[in-house]
Request: fold
Amino acid sequence: MTTFGSLLMTLLATTSFAFKSEAPGKLLRPNFKEAPECSSRPEFLSEVRTDFSSSLTHLPQTLLVARDVEYYVEGKRGEDAVKLHGYQSFVKKNAQVVCGKPTPMGERFSLVAPTLIDNNQKPKVGQSLWQFQIMTEGNKVSFWNLKSSSFGAEPNLENLLKASGATYKVYQRSHDEFELLVTKKEGEITQYLSIRYDSIGNAKAHN
Reply:
């Protein structure tokens, strides 16, 4: 199977990542691991971007396929600082906790974002929405994601993001690469999600 075909199958599936193996018939459990403390913010938060697209509805007619995603959470929970950073490659099909500073109480953060954006006048494969989560348990962190069923109630990507309380910006990084930056602030905690996409033309070029 080609690189693009394999990537497309991954994003259309309901597979989740960063789980322990369980016996058949049992629910999958998050795989919590110890992680180094975050010494700095991820580069995607300070990166200079110039080609800003006003909204998802103004994207060119194309199929955007997620290549990778970074998820970063920072802020304070009472007197405790919170810093959590996860990375997911859809090409290599692996999710990892980059770094994390959990609070004494367990935490769970979640954002929903599209991994397939089919903006063609006649959709080729449709949209795919995934849920990304960072969870803590004691001094350990887990980063995982899986396909979401939210499209059943609301098929519009922009409305779904707004309903979640998040704001977003879309950037065209090159003629065949795009980025969606999602931000959600609740109290003293801010969540950031960066998803980088290849257009279908760029994906073919990598085969």
Confidence is low (pLDDT under 50) at residues 14-27, 202-207. The chain has three helices and eleven strands. Residues 3-18+31-205 form one domain. Helices lie at 3-12, 157-163, 200-205.
